[in-house]
Design goal:
The chain is an alpha/beta fold and 308 residues long. The chain folds into two domains: 12-52; 57-306, 2-enoyl-CoA Hydratase, Chain A, domain 1 (Alpha-Beta Complex), CATH 3.90.226. 43% of the residues lie in helices and 18% in strands. It is built from ten helices and twelve strands. The protein has helices spanning 13-52, 80-91, 110-123, 140-145, 172-177, 202-227, 231-235, 245-251, 260-270, 286-290; strands spanning 55-62, 70-72, 75-77, 96-105, 129-138, 150-153, 158-160, 165-167, 242-244, 256-257, 276-279, 304-306. Strands 1, 4, 5, 6, 7, 9, 10 and 11 form an eight-stranded mixed sheet that branches. The longest helix has 40 residues, at 13-52. The protein starts with 12 loop residues before the first helix and ends with a strand.
Length: 308
């Protein structure tokens, strides 16, 4: 019986090219999948490593302290509530071993200052919270600083200004000079107390003064408890005056002369030498970068009560 040999037809060039293309496409898919797998595994490992790495969180308190956030096309700033929530969230983060409050503020709203202060006092029950004053830590800025476990400032820092102020523009003389009539209807004897369009009565001045005195008293009580200074001893230094860091140390308004780097080193010593620094400073706006925000700042007519 004759044997039959089956011959495979020879492939043409087009078929060979298609096979090579398919092999390259398979190889490319394999390489891409391996790369994707490597990326995912690396991301997971990095995320886990970061989550367990000990950290020191730095919370900046800069500029005038306000209860409200401001935002525009130029950028945004956090409100006191945002900052307070941020501090409290770090209390529950086991990887954050300590917090540094980085202060450079002339003061601001009493309510906003107290809101941040309470968050610090709540958080320091769980982990160390230190504060450092840079150029200035006055009024509301100082109120926040004394709430920490320890408060440091440089020799040239401006510290103190323990007082309360109420300020606003007054137009009553302008109205008289231009023979303008001011009409105001109210339900309630003191409803328009502090109006910039008329002169205050003596009774209204006394009401406002009592309000300021009460706020001032709360300020002094807070400092007295936080710094372990008697109210009688504190009274001499709580009349709105400011002190450089060295004098503030002698008085007892701060714990010691200190700087950012030295305070970070101290926090590492009491927590972990391997702790990394996480700065929660918001991104600077265009106005901040160009330093032109003061050009557009217009004084408000209404009275404002400030730790300032």
């Amino acid at each position: 019986m004759a044997d039959f040999v089956k011959f495979k037809p020879e492939e043409n060039n087009e078929e060979k090219s298609q096979k090579r293309y398919r092999r390259r496409r398979i190889n490319f898919k394999g390489i891409f999948l391996l790369f994707l797998l490597f990326f995912l595994v690396s991301s997971i490992i990095s995320s886990i490593t970061y989550s367990i790495t000990p950290k020191i969180a730095v919370i900046p308190i800069k500029g005038v302290i306000s209860s409200e956030a401001s935002s525009s096309v130029f950028g945004s700033t956090l409100s006191s509530r945002d900052i307070a929530d941020q501090i409290r969230s770090l209390k529950d983060d086991s990887s954050v071993k300590a917090i540094l409050i980085d202060i450079n503020s002339p003061g601001g709203s009493p309510v906003a200052s107290e809101e941040i202060s309470r968050a610090i006092e709540d958080t320091k029950k769980e982990k160390p919270v230190y504060a450092i004053i840079n150029d200035i830590g006055a009024s509301g800025g100082y109120w926040i600083g004394v709430s920490a476990d320890k408060l440091y400032a440089s020799k040239l820092s401006v510290v103190g200004s323990i007082g309360v102020t109420s300020a606003g523009l007054s137009y009553e003389n302008l109205i008289k000079d231009y023979n303008i009539t001011y009409r105001q209807q109210t339900a309630g004897k003191y409803k328009d107390l502090g109006s910039p369009f008329r002169e205050q009565t003596q009774e209204e001045k006394e009401i406002m003064q009592k309000l300021l005195d009460d706020l001032h008293s709360e300020f002094k009580i807070h400092i007295s408890k936080s710094r372990n200074i008697s109210l009688e001893e504190l009274e001499e230094y709580a009349q709105g005056q400011i002190f450089l860091g060295e004098e503030a140390k002698e008085i007892g308004l701060i714990d010691d002369i200190g700087y950012y780097d030295s305070t970070i080193d101290e926090l590492r010593n009491i927590t972990s030498q391997n702790a990394i620094i996480i700065n929660y400073e918001p991104e600077p706006s265009l106005i901040d970068i160009l330093k032109i925000n003061s050009i557009f700042e217009i004084p408000k007519a209404e009275n404002q009560i400030l730790f300032k």
